[in-house]
Amino acid sequence: MMANLYLVIHLPVLPAWLMLILLPEAKATRRLVHSGLIPLLMGAVYAVFLTAGVVFGQAAEGAGMGSLAGIMALMSHPVGALTGWAHFLVFDLFVGAWIARDARAQGFGHAGTVPVLLLTLVFGPLGLAAHVLRRLIAGKGMAF
């Protein structure tokens, strides 16, 4: 069951990443990926998992966010792991969409943006750091 949920929560996210990378100028990309639709949908998924863990006790004993031990316990339970993973999925996509918009606004070509997007997809904050460094090297500054 949990393994299936893991696969299902990728359904809105992976096509969005493909659209960002392969169809950056498409109307569908603007309407789906650059709107709040997917983050809202994924936020609802996150809320369901969070509610299952916090309200309905679907969490490991000692789970919480107040200590490293609490975080480790939180992530040791399938619901906690899915909650955290949904969080990563929505935030990485949100950041990737922002990078794509900002890169276009700063005049960076899409071919040079694709590796940054892939880095963001796989390693989240490293992709954001790469984009910020690219801005700095190009003399675009850090003001977003």
Automatic annotation (TrEMBL):
| Keyword line | Membrane, Transmembrane, Transmembrane helix
Transmembrane regions listed in the UniProt entry: 6-24, 36-59, 79-100, 112-133
Note whether S-adenosyl-L-methionine occurs among the keywords: no
Q: Which Pfam families match?
A: ABA4-like (PF14108)
* Superkingdom of source: Bacteria
UniProt-recorded name of the protein: DUF4281 domain-containing protein
Q: Organism source for this protein?
A: Pararhodobacter aggregans
